[in-house]
Amino acid sequence: MQNLLNNLFPARKNKEQADDLSPETWQKRLSTAALGRGEVRYAREMTSTNLVLREMAQSGAAHGSLCLCETQSAGRGRLGRSWHSPEGQGLWLSVLLRPCLPPERAPLITFCAALAMAKAVQDFGVDARIKWPNDLVSQGRKLCGILLEVSMAAEGVDYVVVGTGLNVRKGAYPPELAHQAASVEDFVAPPPRAEILLRYLAHLEDFIARLERDGLAGIAEEYHALSCTLGSRVNVTGAATLTGEAIAIGDSGALLVRTDDGEVHRVLAGDVSVRGVMGYV
Ligand code: BT5
Predict the structure, then answer these.
(1) Residues 6 or more apart from 39 whose CB is under 8 A from it?
(2) What is the pTM (predicted TM-score) of this model?
């Protein structure tokens, strides 16, 4: 009956229905060959979409499977940090990849995800930039975080779970993070999350194909164009501590930083924090 009413009077659809993330509302509109076409799990609440998808991967889920939910009770960032994922406020999503890549190139998938999400939100008018290694920022504040988990087999990469937490509505981040966090709604009227999802999957599939074919060279030009780290002065803290100019990305994703004495340092993601000398970015 409700369906009939909605078909007859589309204006009656309430906001919640218009922002429905259940697979029936978007799966038939996929433009991808594989992403989003494997096993898809959607629930109101999950502990962490990365965690659930890893379990699915271990049970043999196919390349392109994904998990998404309305809220995570244990959303995770890097280095044991947590990720705020309040109900209905963001795109809390993980995609399973079984890519044809040598192990040393697996970290570059983070860049593919960052590029794909940047393009997806740019399609709706948000000026998103990539902050090395795993953040998407807009006007200096973090819009999306990416968590990559790689599982190796004897022959190489077994699977990769690429998790993205995109803040869509203003309620996605708590007030205490307002100085460093942002949402799509801070800049534009937010589109339905499923629309962002469809674009993200299409862009991600394209960037992964380029990475498989040509390595870093396949994505470097667009990465350089969208990076707000390259060419900036950065502070690196953690396992390494240094200040210098971020000059390039190395073949397996390291950030090359030239310190004032002219020496070039390879900074690996995962064990450092990088801040622009002038602030968060
Ligand atoms: C990240 O970690 O940025 C990776 C976040 C990945 C989240 C997605 S959601 C779907 C999938 N399932 C998961 O369980 N995780 C992935 P990191 O660079 O460590 O940044 C974490 C830091 O960002 C926290 O310590 C906070 O300071 C900040 N933060 C937490 N929630 C945030 C939010 N909603 N928006 C902006 N910043 C946030």
Answers:
(1) 56, 61, 62, 65
(2) 0.93
